[in-house]
Amino acid sequence: MIDLAILPVYLTAVVALLLLPGPDMLLIASSSMSYGRKVGLFASLGNATSGIILTVLAAMGVSALIAMSPLALKALHLLGGAYLLKMGWDCLCSDQGDAPELSDNSAAKAYYQRALISNLLNPKALVFFVMFLPQFVSTNIEATSGEQMLVLGLLLNLLGLTFNFLLVALAGTLGKPLLENAKFRTYQQKVMGGVFVILSLWMLSSFFG
């Protein structure tokens, strides 16, 4: 349900986008290095889940309507930034004993939810799906624009999930020696808190900009 003639161009654009550092890459890499591959994998799945939701919204045209409302976008900027800031504050205020262990399923669940919600509340992700996917919708095939955007978005999410799994494997391997370091374990919550604060400032800068 996509025009095969434009598929090579689309795949090239997707690969370039995946290699571009962004807040999602920062969250997945830092969680993998801090808490291991399991948590990183769940963060990747949370990111992929939000991508699928945004794809469906874009295909239905709902996200396009939201993108046209400055007030809705401003609200998303504020809510997303506030949510990330709260997560950062909670991590910075936590004690050493609050850091989740690698085998702690609640840690994996927590980072799945954080990746999911932070990406859904990121208006730039919403606008990206509205602006990027339609560029590759073709009038040369019988599929509707919504059907083509759905397939294009699902392909993007599949490639993104594969890339994030590779990122988790690399970051998890590099982070393993750190996980065995008692001093690093003492401050890893502070590190993650700093990551969330940076992400929140990045999102809030769009609100106040």
Automatic annotation (TrEMBL):
The chain crosses the membrane at residues 52-73, 116-137, 149-170, 191-208. It is found in: Cell membrane. It holds the Pfam family LysE. The keyword Transcription regulation does not apply. One of its GO terms (cellular component) is plasma membrane. One of its GO terms (molecular function) is amino acid transmembrane transporter activity. It is a multi-pass membrane protein. Keywords: Cell membrane, Membrane, Transmembrane, Transmembrane helix. This is Lysine transporter LysE. It comes from Vibrio fortis. The lineage of its organism: Bacteria, Pseudomonadati, Pseudomonadota, Gammaproteobacteria, Vibrionales.
